[in-house]
Task: structure prediction
Amino acid sequence: MGKITFTNRNNPAITMSAVINFPVGFDEKKSYPAIVVSHPGGGVKEQTAGTYARKLAEKGFVTIAFDRSYQGESGGEPRQLENPYISTEDVSAVIDHLTTLPYIDNDRIGAMGICAGAGYTANAAIQDRRIKAIGTVSAVNIGSMFRNGWENTVKSIDALPLVEAGSNARTTDAGGSDYATMPLAPLKEADAPNEELRQAWEYYHTPRAECATAPGFATLRSLNQIITYDAYHMADVYLTQPIQIVAGSVAGSKWMSDDLFDRAASTDKSFHVVEGANHMELYDGQKYVDEAVSVLAPFFQQKLTAGEAAKAAAE
Result:
């Protein structure tokens, strides 16, 4: 395990920061399957993404948890930009780096994400065929969430004022003011509308999982890209890779995992429901995380090992 940096080949002005994890007995002269792990909106690699990356490395994978461009310890200005199109491309940028490492088998690369990171992972897999298998935990399609609400109770047209707010923020930003911001999770406990989102506040703003590089807000101008983004666009045509979806039975966000399962073109897709878990408990609730890993690890082992077997047969 160690922290690494590398140039983002989509934008060479940005240096990406990541943590790479190695399986027990790692030998750099051998070839290993790899898994890219993407963090939630407002999160960083040291939080739940790092937890899943470490646990999957214990199962025999090289794993890499990274900070997205403009966030955490990765470069880019303005800070805390949450442009979902760039966040999707960041998954591919990490894979670009993995393909330069001699101990990575380029035919055995998988990707997973938590919350918005799961949506970005799915979107990346739609357009990047180097991703051979996909895992999601508490998946969030960030565009759908902002348009339709946490529990899918809002009409898309009712999000038009958010597009206006993002547009106006761009004007004030251009006028030389400090970049306007918005919360990605409640910034105060009193702002949480329910227990699940109260836990989101607790996760990001108390010792439960707070991190100095994860302030919990995004630039307001990001709304212009978020509202019109669909992480599952063309999933019904191009998302053909094997996919394992994991969501909590009482998660307000579960409908976005359901939507991914329904829309994915893959004929090799599975949905595991963690009974009693909400959205946030799959971030760091030990028994729930362990259950998720107990499903994801064998999934990746089977699908990425299959890639090795196919390559061996071809040789």
About this structure: The longest helix spans residues 286-314. The chain has eleven helices and ten strands.
